[in-house]
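User: Last request for today: this protein with pyridoxal-5'-phosphate, please.
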Amino acid sequence: MTSIPVRIPMTNNNATIAYFSMEIGLTNDIPTYSGGLGVLAGDTIKSSADLEIPIVAVTLISKKGFFSQDIDGEGRQVEYPVDWDPSRFMVRLPKKVKIQIEGRNVYIQAWCYTVRSITGGEVNVLYLDTDVEENTKEDREITAVLYGGDVHYRLKQEIVLGIGGVRMLHALGFHIKKYHMNEGHASFLTLELLVLNKRDVESVWDENRIWDTNKVKDLCVFTTHTPIEAGHDRFSYDLVKKVLGEVIPFEVLKRLGGEHYLNMTFLALNLSNYVNGVAKKHGEVSKNLFPGYEINAITNGVHSFTWTCESFKRVYDKHIPGWANEPELLVRSEIIPEEEIWEAHLHAKGCLVDYIKKNTAIEIRPDVLTIGFARRFTSYKRADLIFLNLERLLKISEKGRIQIIYSGKAHPKDTPGKDIIKKIVEMTKTVNDNIKVVFLKNYCIELALKLVSGVDIWLNTPLRPREASGTSGMKAAHNGVINFSILDGWWIEGHIEGITGWSIGPKPVESSLIPVNDATDAEDLYYKLENLILPMYYHDRSQWIKVMKNSISKIAYYFNTNHMMRRYVTEAYLR
Ligand SMILES: *Cc1c(COP(=O)(O)O)cnc(C)c1O
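Assistant: Here's the final one, the structure of the complex with pyridoxal-5'-phosphate:
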């Protein structure tokens, strides 16, 4: 495919690495993300801009967002489409590309958003959009709702992302040397690359010689995020045939994507020279899930500058200049005086107290131990584990008061996840006198920063080994907020008992699913809350601040996307 390069507004198109992600969460104003995967993608892009890595990102415009969350009188989640206008933040590019869906031509345009780092680095993000007048009404909706609709809708979205994305990059004049698939949603890009790198051979009957899989493998990097079999996208070949058609012969496709149905993870695994999981443990778990593949591990991070609240930014600027672009320097946090850490924390806590008062009319107290729990609501995250033995929890709270602040969305089709929201909202009414419980609706990037900086303890209670990595605990650590979590995902690497925070439940052992043992985990949670956390918080403030400092110097300095991206460059992109 040759074409005249389009100059992308205000910058150039010399990026050689293309980063594909179904969702990207950069700012609150651009609601094209649902949770951790998207926010990680956004942080990846921001760090790439800091480090001036020549990357361009590709995603979908999701004009109705994921959804906006309200909670009704009974505690049920109600979803509304988000109404936002890309033209406020992005430039619509003049190029359109064409793909085939169900035999129809579907045209795709792109919006360009430029992420600018304070270092001067820039990364362009291309948001693909099928809402153009050439398309049928139905096709104009393909890029409307993130993770909306049924499997048919999802397949069309993934075709737009993977195949449309590669075509758009070519139309814009990019010469990409590495395609990085952030999760399997973008795996169709491998098919477009197979077609583009088709060998010219004499006999068209020799299929194996036509399709240069090695060439495509050299071009592709794949990051898997899902530690269980059922989490991986798959489509029946009947549906693929109907919607996508026969891009490459089905016989070849089945060899690459699975015999009985098209598994997007297998497609990416078979066509990438570098594959990784998102934490050391997740790398192992993935090896068990996909035996025979070489799977590496690069542990996730968060963008330090984004996820540090204003008061801590001021402290770091004063004592550790240069920290934002080189978060490794936070290893020196020991030099920050205790009072300044505590003051910065109280400032952040005050902001959260004000936000809660303004939005819920509930007054939480700044002098009470405050536990935060916010993330996607889905069963395995066990948001309600702390209430397993309510009587016990209430007893503990007589020794030292506690407040718990919740926030998070459940996928509109995740009924068990929604039931947990309902249960938590009910808790806000029942235990109010002894333990204040607050649920903040419409969790988003802005609210996440308020929470991860404004509470004292960041709680995470996933079912092992379902938390591939988790990142919100790393955000908390950047603000001196102490982690109290199940040993799964990144916390296995970040945890030093009593030094950087506290663990809940047994040590990680097996890579396979461990039978649910809510009671054992809850018991450990109660024990440590009662005997370690509450006494230290209320009676040994100096020790508490030491653990806060350790969170910064032993967690934040390492678990950040600047560090993570240096690893992607040297271990994945330059291979
Ligand atoms: C960081 C973040 C997440 C991911 O949190 P986990 O603890 O990794 O599940 C989800 N949603 C938002 C808005 C975030 O900022």
